[in-house]
Amino acid sequence: IPHDEDIPKGDTVRCLTMLGHFGFECLPHQLVNRSIQQGFSFNILCVGETGIGKSTLIDTLFNTNLKDKKSSHFYSNVGLKIQTYELQESNVQLKLTVVKTVGYGDQINKEASYQPVVDYVDAQFEAYLQEELKIKRSFIDYHDSRIHVCLYFISPTGHSLKSLDLLTMKNIDSKVNIVPLIAKADTISKNDLQKFKCKIMSELVSNGIQIYQFPTHDETTAQVNSSMNGQLPFAVVGSMDEVKVGKRMVRGRQYPWGVLQVENENHCDFVKLRDMLLCINMEDLKEQTHIQHYERYRCCRLKKMGFIDVGPDNKPLSFQEIYEAKRQKFYDHCQREEEELKQKFMQRVKEKETTFKESEKELQEKFEHLKRVQQEETMKLEEERRQLEEEIIDFYKMKAVSETLQTQVCTNIKKE
Ligand code: GTP
């Protein structure tokens, strides 16, 4: 029986000291077992110019050979290549989805370069939101494709960020956890690298770009995470080549002057990236995606759909009330539209009626006019006919007279 310590905490919660074994101390083990059974998933978005080393780095991270063929530099649009893999390390299964840009930075139009990335990230949020809004949800077998981390590959120019880098990062920093990387860091000297890192960070700050910060609220990881936050962007080198160093075979890149060992922390930040991403902060990346980025997307979308938490009087509104209010608003809107349509219809009928009447009047006048003209024509013709008939009569008369005269002349000649 719990012993009441009689220490009131707040109004209703009291602190009790347990005087026996209950078993809920095993709760964390239950969670671990369930998670292992379900397996884990992790979605990485790699954004970077063509041939910057995205595939090689992913291969190096997961010690796999996921790369297929090289991309062309001549795509007219940026595309995204999505590949999902099932990986296993001891008894832990990981469903890894890698989304890579194809043709990024190869177009003149910068907006066309980052927009497909923004659209893809949003589309994954939308798919999750639609699943959430279903009456019958099935999150158990739902493949959550929301992007947990964006590895942004910066060209090792040693100079500064490109305007496309700033534009893209600015457009996605509120949607995804960005971890900036200096790609192919073996092509830049140690001194230049340090200056380049500082330059990149100051450019990100002055442009108000938020990159992912390794969390420092958990005391077990606070120290390493805060030290790693100070080393961003990570300068990475990728390679799947096995190179001989002394008696050991290591993964690295062989040069005429020596070997760059990928997993040597003095040579590059690859191990730091792998530890931060996979060993220490994968869960935080997933959590931030859900509670920060997805939450923001969901909030905007629901607001756009017309949902609000409190009414104008600052009182909380239930889903039912909002739904009813929206339904009423929609109904009123339909009624108004119907009324407007009716009015418009009546107006048009009236206008048509007036036009018809005017046309009828015009036709009537035309008909009357034509009738008059025709009557006048008929009268004129009648007159002409009458005159003609008179002329015919006169002609016959004259003809008869002339015939009589001719007969008399003939008779007189015979007598003579
Ligand atoms: P696309 O998918 O075709 O856009 O290329 P990608 O960004 O995936 O680049 P990929 O990994 O295919 O690497 C392109 C070339 O760069 C290959 O020849 C790699 O060997 C080389 N490469 C990759 N990583 C590094 C690196 O860290 N340093 C150097 N020097 N070369 C690298």
Automatic annotation (TrEMBL):
Residues 38-304 form the Septin-type G domain. Pfam families: Septin. SUPFAM superfamilies: P-loop containing nucleoside triphosphate hydrolases. InterPro entries: G_SEPTIN_dom (IPR030379), P-loop_NTPase (IPR027417), Septin (IPR016491). Keywords: Cell projection, Coiled coil, Cytoplasm, Cytoskeleton, GTP-binding, Nucleotide-binding. GO terms for cellular component: cell projection; cytoskeleton. It is found in: Cell projection; Cytoplasm, Cytoskeleton. The keyword Transmembrane does not apply. Septins polymerize into heterooligomeric protein complexes that form filaments. Filament-forming cytoskeletal GTPase. This is Septin. The gene is SEPTIN14.
